[in-house]
Predict the structure.
Amino acid sequence: MIKQQWDMLLESIGMSVDNIRGNKLRSFLTTLGIIIGVAAIIALMTVVQGATDTMNAQFDAMGLGTLRVQITGTALKRGLTDADIQTLIDCEHVAGVSPSLSAKVTAKRGDVWSEKITVSGNDGAYFAHNPDLLARGRAINEIDVRENSRVCLLDGDAAKTLFFGEDPLGQTLYLNGREYTVVGMVDEEENVSLFSQILLGGTGDGMVYVPYTSAKKLLGTSTASTLEVYVTDPDETDAAVEEMEAVLDAIFNYKDDTYTIINMESMTEAMNLMTSMMMSLLVGIASIALLVGGIGIMNMMLVTVTERTTEIGLRKALGAEPGQIQIQFLIEAIILSLLGGVLGAALGLTIAIVICANTEITFALNTFAIVLGVGFSGAVGIIFGWAPARKASNLNPIDALRSV
């Protein structure tokens, strides 16, 4: 009995495949909606997941246990003085504080100049906690900060802008009319942090790192508006935030909206939540194409039932059960939808690979997206193939044979 049912199932599959092969163009056009829908789902989910992984990697590179403090201040106090910074350093759960200043300046070297160079003033602690930043030469140290040394480091963009085709190490340049000597180069992949891009809206023609004290004179300010705070233990980050909030509230007389403390871990969680919502929205939109494809399959199967009325009548007259007829047409709809799902998966992965290869997004195979896309396509075949299959199984043999 089981062998007989299995043979009937194989026979139904064979007949379905033969019918699809006999109408290749129509079958392809029928599955086109499925192909587009599955490709869209897989490509979107893969690219969004890759973008999320890339951004999370950048957040991790900025360091867990590191806090960013952005000062907006008040009309009377725009930033933090050295005494204020020392008060933060004295907090129990704070291991160190690295103040920084960032602004666009005019840079000149010989006949080459730019008004879009970003200067970043940092101290030795910043480079000590970001060792991967230095590519060649030496980093800014505490002696440079203490002596207000006019030394600097360049990123790749700044080097191309001011020293195109030359080695900038040991050479001089002018920032807002002040002479600086290039003592180091930063890594091409590390030169622009995500945090700097958020705060500065990009870095123009490149970034130049100078000692923090020198940056204060260069930019004509005595206060810092941006801090990088290193906590003693990443597990004590919340305690460090509470201590810093108490200190900053006292510094700014408990006025609201005078500072922002950015916790990388909290930002990562918020980013993951946002990308999850975005992915769900994109998948929902792409699923519309699958529904359209399902309607196309149902339409074609209804036409097929009409075309094969005589065949259905003959099979019923020879003793075929309604369930056997229904299974055959249902299998044909499922094969069509799964075929579209497989082709769509291949197309979607190809699109995702091309997008990732031409951007800075990391490609990662998203097996869930593939399973979702192909599984959804199979479900579409069952749902939209059921009605035509039911219609075929309910045909009256006598009425069907009248068309012979």
Residues 301 and 388 are 6 Å apart (CA to CA).
